[in-house]
Amino acid sequence: VDPAMFLLLSLSCLFLLLLWRWNSTKGKLPPGPTPLPIIGNILQLDLKDVSKSFSSFSKIYGPVFTVYLGMKPTVVLHGYEAVKEALIDLGEEFSGRGSFPVAERINKGLGIILSNGKTWKEMRRFSLMTLRNFGMGRRSIEDRVQEEARCLVEELRKTNASPCDPTFILGCAPCNVICSIIFQNRFEYTDQTFLKFLKMLNEGIDILNSPWIQVCNNFPILIDYLPGSHKKFIEDMNYIPNFISEKVKEHQQSLDMNNPRDFIDCFLIKMEQEKHNQQSEFTLENLKYTASDLYSAGTETTSTTLRYGLLLLLKHPEVTAKVQEEIERVIGRHRSPCMQDRSRMPYTDAVMHEIQRFIDLVPTSLPRAVTRDVKFRNYLIPKGTNIITSLTSVLHDDKEFPNPESFDPGHFLDKSGNFKKSDYFMPFSTGKRICVGEGLVRMELFLFLTTILQNFKLKPLVDPKDINITPVVNGFASVPPPYQLCFIPV
Length: 490
Prior knowledge:
Layout: H1 3-25, H2 50-61, E1 64-69, E2 72-78, H3 80-89, E3 96-97, H4 101-107, H5 117-131, H6 141-157, H7 167-183, H8 192-208, H9 211-218, H10 221-225, H11 229-254, H12 263-273, H13 284-298, H14 300-315, H15 317-330, H16 346-359, E4 368-369, E5 374-376, E6 379-381, E7 386-390, H17 391-395, H18 438-455, E8 456-460, E9 472-473, E10 478-479, E11 485-489
């Protein structure tokens, strides 16, 4: 036998033996496709649309199944019932963060997004409280979003109703809101520091969406030994915590313990209060990475949703007309929209929900992990096993949302035209790891879109029926195709 062939056969046998031992000693994992040695089920997945592959597997193996991404088993939850049973009914057990090796090279298990245990609980609790306006100074977060909405309108006026690609302007606005929350100041859209910051953020997110990053996450040994875009990702993403470190130094010099101005101040005050606690999680390192997490989670997701939302409104002018009629009736022309308006604008509220449901921004969410051995639907999932939830399977459930592939605000309206809530609406995931910035993002979407539609008519460059709304599908998030439009002042 050829030595190479012999080696391959030996490795395969060894791998299958290890797999069998894992399954027999570590619990009874759900069924799933047979993995290949070393690479697992990678070749059976469409890395450009993993969600679609999971949908196919669920038809064969049911709503809970196991796939091997490399040599590690990952349990996939498909459909509302399985997702709810795990993430809500067994919330604590399913509240771990699964491994994400490329990003872990940057924040070393600190911050909110990739942390676990005590670090995660304390950073999350603190961030939630601070984002809910406790101790954020005299200006509420809603004030900050409204101010940015006005600046956004001014920037859009500068396009002089000529064709423009809205990507850049819609990226600036949510980023500025986070800047205002974290260190009190917003930037002009032409500020060079701000532009560099946005460039790093956008570049990083683009790389994160590539199939190569998924390969690196499943074979972490490649990260340290091979060149590739993952190196650029790590470099770009390190720029943000370093930028925040500089801001923290400035804050330390001008801190008034009785008058916090922003997130950094609140954190520094908390650090001072806990300075005698040896085990405190409130450290400069954790501040740096928690603030970075708020940026990376709160900027790109909101701007992509806004951009996709405008594209859907161009495609469906009849929907846009009804939203504008409701804005005219409830808000009028002469004051800024505010969050209190939302309860009197059921159609607009339904449109905001339908945009998020339809675009299915993060189809498989970030990986979770079980925090202990868990008995789940007659299976035994060992502690530390990665869990992936298919949010697509919930947001596009055809029993809850008839014709889920079509954009229809009626999915969130009852027969009388009142807004209708749905338990299946979970674009931010659900359970204990639901996105920390969920409330902020919903506020931004409502205030930004209503302010734009209060001030402009949206004019497409092609006939609405020819507008392509199919996402440029990618690994991590659904991104709309590039497009241009004209903002015609009203």
